[in-house]
Amino acid sequence: MNRAAVVAGIGSCLPARSVSNAELTTRLDTTDEWIRSRTGISTRRYADQGSATSDLAVGAGAQALKSAGQTSVDVVVVATTTPDRPCPGTAPLVASQLGMTGVAAFDVAAVCTGFLYGLANAAGLIAAGTASSALVIGAETFSSILNPDDRATSVIFGDGAGAVVLRAGDPEEAGALGPCDLGSDGEGQDLITVRAGGSRQRLSGKAPEPGDEYFSMAGKEVFWRAVRRMTESCRAVLDATGTAIGEVDALVGHQANQRILASLADSLGLPRERCLGNLAEVGNTAAASIPLALDHAHANGELRAGQRVLLTAFGGGLTWGSTVLTWPVLSRA
């Protein structure tokens, strides 16, 4: 029998500290109206001093395990751009903190596409019979790499974590992940990046330029690349499953920018009201954005069992990816 990876549980975790647009205007040359009109964001969460990405990942993972009625899995995957340390990976610590010692655990680094790359990795391990269950977490503390004086990035990004539990099951049952379409283009590596801190900079023999230790993004150049790549990727998984765009009940795209999400829906020919998300409340949480949006939509009733759901993301690398599934019946932790 063909084995599929089936969504069995979901959870999320947000830091307590809420940072409003009004707070940002006290130190940046911007206004609440400017931020809302260009991004769709009104507030975001920042992790407190002394906390780390792993703390948020553990919180989301614990909720997802409880939702699935499980205490352990065979594999833990953490998708993050902001690991606790450059070495080792964050996933083994997260697994240990969740009471799982001896399980496989590894990080995925694909920036905002990280959660979908993590899903694809975990689904492949389940399909191959290497694992029967997996915990896939997207977790970020982007506030730790933002330049506080950079209006272009500081108003967009926030911290948070979201997670799903996958189990082995039948490809035809609700919750089974469809085919995953993944892609990359390394020629665009400088469009979304942190230039300092890696081997390229450390072995250059030169000190980093001021500001290179912070995250940077060429927003205008990223915009249309994101829309085009996500559109192509969505069409690929819809074609692979024989799903017409009119059969898609909900589109959950990476929560990057409201204008990107609207343009994506228009490009696909999908009514904008079928785009689900929580961008206004939490901002762009990179690898955490899709599972966070899924958990919140599930909790508030926007996402219901039996709905056909299309997931898609675009991020640094450049990377992109999509998958499709029928939303299952899930308990709430």
TrEMBL record:
<keyword id="KW-0511">Multifunctional enzyme</keyword>
<dbReference type="GO" id="GO:0006633">
    <property type="term" value="P:fatty acid biosynthetic process"/>
</dbReference>
<dbReference type="InterPro" id="IPR013751">
    <property type="entry name" value="ACP_syn_III_N"/>
</dbReference>
<comment type="subunit">
    <text>Homodimer.</text>
</comment>
<keyword id="KW-0012">Acyltransferase</keyword>
<dbReference type="Pfam" id="PF08541">
    <property type="entry name" value="ACP_syn_III_C"/>
</dbReference>
<keyword id="KW-0808">Transferase</keyword>
<dbReference type="GO" id="GO:0033818">
    <property type="term" value="F:beta-ketoacyl-acyl-carrier-protein synthase III activity"/>
</dbReference>
<protein>
    <recommendedName>
        <fullName>Beta-ketoacyl-[acyl-carrier-protein] synthase III</fullName>
        <ecNumber>2.3.1.180</ecNumber>
    </recommendedName>
</protein>
<keyword id="KW-0963">Cytoplasm</keyword>
<feature type="active site">
    <location>
        <position position="284"/>
    </location>
</feature>
<comment type="function">
    <text>Catalyzes the condensation reaction of fatty acid synthesis by the addition to an acyl acceptor of two carbons from malonyl-ACP. Catalyzes the first condensation reaction which initiates fatty acid synthesis and may therefore play a role in governing the total rate of fatty acid production. Possesses both acetoacetyl-ACP synthase and acetyl transacylase activities. Its substrate specificity determines the biosynthesis of branched-chain and/or straight-chain of fatty acids.</text>
</comment>
<dbReference type="GO" id="GO:0005737">
    <property type="term" value="C:cytoplasm"/>
</dbReference>
<dbReference type="Pfam" id="PF08545">
    <property type="entry name" value="ACP_syn_III"/>
</dbReference>
<feature type="domain" description="Beta-ketoacyl-[acyl-carrier-protein] synthase III N-terminal">
    <location>
        <begin position="106"/>
        <end position="186"/>
    </location>
</feature>
<keyword id="KW-0443">Lipid metabolism</keyword>
<keyword id="KW-0444">Lipid biosynthesis</keyword>
<dbReference type="GO" id="GO:0004315">
    <property type="term" value="F:3-oxoacyl-[acyl-carrier-protein] synthase activity"/>
</dbReference>
<dbReference type="InterPro" id="IPR013747">
    <property type="entry name" value="ACP_syn_III_C"/>
</dbReference>
<dbReference type="InterPro" id="IPR004655">
    <property type="entry name" value="FabH"/>
</dbReference>
<comment type="similarity">
    <text>Belongs to the thiolase-like superfamily. FabH family.</text>
</comment>
<keyword id="KW-0276">Fatty acid metabolism</keyword>
<keyword id="KW-0275">Fatty acid biosynthesis</keyword>
<feature type="active site">
    <location>
        <position position="112"/>
    </location>
</feature>
<dbReference type="GO" id="GO:0044550">
    <property type="term" value="P:secondary metabolite biosynthetic process"/>
</dbReference>
<feature type="region of interest" description="ACP-binding">
    <location>
        <begin position="255"/>
        <end position="259"/>
    </location>
</feature>
<feature type="domain" description="Beta-ketoacyl-[acyl-carrier-protein] synthase III C-terminal">
    <location>
        <begin position="238"/>
        <end position="327"/>
    </location>
</feature>
<feature type="active site">
    <location>
        <position position="254"/>
    </location>
</feature>
<comment type="pathway">
    <text>Lipid metabolism; fatty acid biosynthesis.</text>
</comment>
<dbReference type="InterPro" id="IPR016039">
    <property type="entry name" value="Thiolase-like"/>
</dbReference>
